[in-house]
Amino acid sequence: MDTVTGQKWLIGIFSVLLIVVLIIVAGVEMRKTRLERPEIEISGTTEECIGCHVKKGVAVKLIDEWKWSEHAEKGIGCYECHEAEEGEFDAMKCPESNILIAKHPTPGDCRECHERQVKEFANSKHVLSQAFMALKGSDRNVFEPPVTTKHGCEQCHHIGNYWPDKSIGECDACHSKHRFDIAQARHSETCGECHIGPDHPHIEIFLESKHGNFYSTFADEYDWDYKPGEPVPFGAPTCATCHMSATGTYKQFTHNVSDRLTWESQAPFSVRTQEYWGGISWQEKRERMEGVCYQCHSQSFVDRYLLTADLANLQYNEIWETTIDWMKKLREHKVFKTDVFEFGGKAITSWPMVGYDEELEHIAYRNWHHEGRRFRHGAEMMGADYTQWHGIWELQENLTKIIQVGAEHGVPEAKRWLVAKDPDKFMKLYPLYDIPGGSWGPSAMAMRGNMVLDRIPNYWETVRSNVKTAYDNGLLTEKQWELYSDLYENREIETGRQYELPELHDELMENLTIDLKQLYEQQKVDLILMK
Amino acid sequence: MKLKDWILERFPINYERFVEINEKVFIKEPIPLHYKKWFFATGAAPLILIALQIVTGILLMFYYIASPEAAYESVRYISQEVRFGFWIRGIHRWGSNLLVIALLLHMTRVFFTRAYRRPRELNWIIGVILLGLSFGLSLTGYSLIQNQVSYWATTVGTNSVNAIPLIGKPLLQFLRGGEEVTANTLTRFFTFHVTLLPPLLLLFMFVHIFILRLHGMAELEGKEGEGSYAFYPEHFFKVIILTLFFVATLSTLAVILPPGLGEPADPSTTPAVIKPEWYFYPVYIALKLMPMHIGMSVLMILGVILVFWPFIDEFVKRRAPKLRLNYIVGTIAILTFLTVTIWEIIV
Predict the structure, then answer these.
(1) Do B105 and A12 touch (CB under 8 A)?
(2) Please, what are the domains in chain B?
(3) pLDDT, tens digit, for every residue of B178-226?
(4) Chain B residue numbers touching A72 (CB-CB < 8 A)
(5) What is the 3 state secondary structure string of chain B?
(6) A340-349 pLDDT, tens digit each
């Protein structure tokens, strides 16, 4: 072979080699650009875990979930979280290898990388959930057999689990293992796993609110993976948006879900939250929550809405106090067969004060634990039906029932109340709170008619005085009192009574009269009742 | 011939002279016989591929928006919603890949045949400049999609510029339009990609081909006077066949392996693995294995050697006439390039 021929071979071979190899190389690389997720790089031990689990078909789906996680993307594999040292409470030898693994990664483990989140969580009410459940007189400890609550209250209250390693909490309650997805925790359904049902129907309240309506309609358009700390790129909030995400004014996201809660409104009495939760006053918490609201709403709406919700809480407190008072009166008249439970000569205080073995006790219990919460939380989170029919209506119904049973047992005050023909007898059971006008804009109609505010003498002066007392007791902010005073001064305008009714109103009433007459003729309903 | 007359009336040139020049420079340009082998005729492929890049690039610009907020979405729109958008983008992206391959083939032929030898040294240097411009176009084009991989490749890529002695820091700031990779960087890269680099590329291509035509096609060393054939039709069709191969491959690849979108760029989350395009792997590995400043200096020295290779080779040849330095260096370079690239993909 001469030099030139050799040269030709050399160039020919290299040319073919370059074309073939590099097109394959480019093809492999181009394929990678179409992968939805970058390839996962993991440690040797993790590789061993996955290999064996896949081979034996054990918890393979969890591994698949993990593959979608940001952990996987960042090379945090099985062993990085499940690593254990001899003597740890959950250390176990993997039966197929000699690897020592932790059976229960706890917040103590998560803290190694997510220190801030674990610390914030420790300042939230979530951390107390198991301690609450363990109260001596709670229904779980008196009323329900132990095994029945294991998959009941214990399941949800596990979010505040006291682990043997002294850490408290359960991160995967919201960021389900093994995907630990931020988007999942941002969806309201995740919170709704526990915040549901008759005692705190938060997911139901949310879904019936305008916020929830937006969520139901547009959730699939939202970017759920926005970076923590960035403004929420949604048109309407989910649970996490208001309670955890960064806001326009308060640019911190937090894992302390109590960070913006100004009322402890799960308790029998609504109380303003204390500074020992996160070291901030309820007034500061309110400012943070307002920062959330102001992102979408005008200040005047937010201030009126929150003031009304605050007054609803104060009104509830009066109703609850009245409930307790009546229960006391009934107890004095021996309406109850048992008084308190005793064990070893010591009384077990149960909620609210007597026990679980009589109907009225259940009614009273529900008046704070079920209806009372529904009313308060409905009023705080725009859940009209929960404020109204599942809330105040049932609260009043329960109270009426208690008084009625008292009357049947000869309690004179109860009897007197029951036979009274005064339409305001319900309003006279406890002090009233009210706000001139409302959050939804002025109305020429809403506050007309033979209403409580017309029937009760000096109505506005009386309710103002009650609100003033609440303000003096530090339960409202100065800003709120100023707003209230403004509204009070302009109450004629705020209640809309100086506005004339539209002409259409007469026409509507005429039509209604025709309907009513027809109803009377067809159904023989007494027209007097309809007037 | 009415049309011809009509045109000549409006462009009064010396038609006979025009035909004569055309025949001399193009049609009857003597092509040495060895160019009949396809792998000696790869020089025109980059020309055709660049033409395709210009056409597809203009089409992509109809929809592309060069802002950090909209770039990714506009590329997604092109790929998923615009009619034939995926295909045009596929050809453009694959075209850049095949352009690199075509350039390497062309360089291989020139290198092993020592076609750069006197008096064609300057054309080699212009060729190296063209290679650099092509890489510049690839790099700037790659960053435009603004996905996680491209954003971070741009960040790390520009960061390595910082290690260039003396001019590193100001050059970095010039490229990025500030200290960090921001909207400025995207605007700049877009500007480089569509307004600065393509005209430069065309200018140097013109000079490259002009010099080539002045000298005529290089003959094989030691086989001078092997005989020749006319450019048209045989060599012309040879080139066309090779070009068609590239174009057909290009379109096929764009359809069966269209480029993806990746995840949108997230400046706050550094991905675990940041890699450039495959043809930068040798540079990437060199910088990974060596401290940044040393790596950058080594690469720059290699760059200088590449530019002045015809003179170095001549210098060595005069002292050791038997030594086939270009064979040794070329073989080592190609095998190293392939090995390193494959290794980076597998590992």
Answers:
(1) no
(2) 33-346 (1.20.810.10)
(3) 888 888 999 999 999 999 999 999 999 999 999 988 888 888 887 777 7
(4) none
(5) CHHHHHHHHHCCCCHHHHHHHHHHHHHCCEEEHHHHCHHHCCCHHHHHHHHHHHHHHHHHHCCCCCCCCCHHHHHHHHHHCCCCHHHHHHHHHHHHHHHHHHHHHHHHHHHHCCCCCCCCHHHHHHHHHHHHHHHHHHHHHHHCCCEHHHHHHHHHHHHHHCCCCCCHHHHHHHHHCCCCCCHHHHHHHHHHHHHHHHHHHHHHHHHHHHHHHHHCCCCCCCCCCCCEEEHHHHHHHHHHHHHHHHHHHHHHHHHHCCCCCCCECCCCCCCCCCCCCHHHHHHHHHHHHCCHHHHHHHHHHHHHHHHCHHHHHHHHHHHCCCCCHHHHHHHHHHHHHHHHHHHHHHC
(6) 777 888 877 6
